[in-house]
Amino acid sequence: MTEAALENSVRRILADLPSVLWYHTRDSRGSNAGFPDLVCAGPRGVLYRELKREGKRPTIAQEAWLSALRGAGQDAGVWQPTSLLNGTIARELSALAGLASSP
């Protein structure tokens, strides 16, 4: 599964969660290097997620952002196709929307 296909799957989940607002930069060339692909905000907080194809790791700049966000007490991480297939993405987004508890 490509990163674009993963993103489309995440968008379909988000379409069913109107209480969750999300942002994805369409063209990262004007952004600071490494900022996470997706920011989701809902009644239960904010998630920062980097989307990666299976087996791909975040770049050094992406890891720096994720680490800085986690250090600031934020929920930051990486989603890969396995995160979709094992239900992690749906669970985390449902929890963010206040519909389920976090794993």
Structural key phrases:
single chain; 103 residues; alpha+beta; four-stranded mixed beta sheet; 4 helices; 38% helix; 20% strand; globular
Question: Would you give an account of this structure?
Answer:
Helices cover 38% and strands 20% of the residues. It has 4 helices and 4 strands; from the N terminus they run αβββαβαα. The protein starts with a helix and ends in a 7-residue tail after the last helix. The chain has a 4-stranded mixed sheet with strand order 1-2-3-4, with helices on both faces. The chain has 103 residues and is of the alpha+beta class.
What's the quick description here?
With 103 residues, this protein is an alpha+beta fold. 38% of the residues lie in helices and 20% in strands.
Q: What's the rounded overall pLDDT mean?
A: 93
Low-confidence stretches: none
Spatial strand sequence of the major β-sheet: 1-2-3-4
| Overall form | globular
Number of helices: 4
Based on CA atoms alone, the radius of gyration comes out at 13 Å
> What's the total number of strands?
4
How much helix, percentage-wise, in residues?
Answer: 25-40%
Q: What percent of residues are in strands?
A: 15-25%
Mind summarizing the main beta sheet?
A: 4 strands, mixed
Order of secondary-structure elements: HEEEHEHH
Based on helices, strands and strand pairing, what is the structural class?
A: alpha+beta
How far apart, in Å, are the first and last alpha carbons? 24 Å
